[in-house]
Write a structure and sequence with these properties.
The protein has about 220 residues and is an alpha/beta fold. The protein has eleven helices and four strands, in the order H-H-E-H-H-H-H-E-E-H-H-H-H-E-H. Strand 2 and strand 3 form a beta hairpin. The longest helix is centred in the first third of the chain and has 21 residues. The chain starts with a helix and ends in a 5-residue tail after the last helix.
């Protein structure tokens, strides 16, 4: 289940990772976890269409004789049920959405979240959004302009690959991968004596009802 990705041990691990990075560097980390980054309604349509066609084929070519009204209506009912059921099967949506489509959705949602959460509102433009999308099992790392200029070549891309690779193993493993990035961020933007915590460290998540009802800051 999606909520298990961000269970209590995972939340604690993310808290430690944020502290590790912010104590070692001037980077301000915001972690956002989303159930999904797009609706992928085409997956519902495909599943519903396949089920409807299969149902119609059974009714037309099976041994049982169906009423004409059933042949007209029942395949659509079966298709509608199958299409709705896809909402409960994230793996099906993931398989029916090409990797490039999923990546575009994740990056687009991450960039929107970067602005919505005000990650750019830091003194030295040192904000870092770690965006994790559960259905897609993908991570996006968005660095503000001040941090992006100072990061070594390829650091952000490697961070995204490492976090994405850990997604299937749960939130705690992703958090451990995130903590290991502290040294790279410290090298890019060392912590200063007058550094203050400019962005809230709370995890921004919609994976359970409690998080969905929490007002955004």
């Amino acid at each position: 289940m999606a909520a298990a990705f961000l269970d209590a041990p995972a939340r604690d691990a993310f808290g430690r990772a944020i502290v590790a990075i912010e104590c070692a560097s001037a980077v301000e980390v915001v972690v956002a976890v989303r159930r999904r980054s797009a609706a992928y309604l085409h997956a519902n349509v495909i599943a519903g269409g396949v089920a409807a066609i299969a149902g119609l084929a059974v009714m037309l070519f099976g041994d049982h004789v169906f009423a004409l009204s059933s042949i007209l209506i029942d395949p659509f009912v079966v298709g509608a049920i199958a299409g709705a059921a896809v909402e409960l099967l994230p793996g099906v949506k993931r398989r029916l959405a090409p990797a490039a489509m999923r990546r575009r959705a994740v990056v687009r949602a991450a960039r929107a979240t970067f602005v919505e959460r005000g990650v750019h509102n830091t003194r030295d433009r040192s904000g870092l959004l770690v965006y994790l999308s559960w259905l897609e099992r993908q991570a996006a790392v968005i660095a503000d302009s001040g941090l992006e200029r100072r990061l070594a070549l390829g650091v952000r891309d490697r961070a995204e690959r490492a976090l994405t690779a850990a997604m299937a193993r749960g939130g705690a493993q992703v958090a451990r991968e995130l903590a290991q990035l502290a040294a790279a961020f410290a090298a890019a933007m060392p912590r200063r004596a007058d550094d203050v915590n400019e962005l809230p460290d709370v995890i921004d998540s919609d994976l359970d009802r409690r998080d969905r009802n929490r007002p955004r800051r």
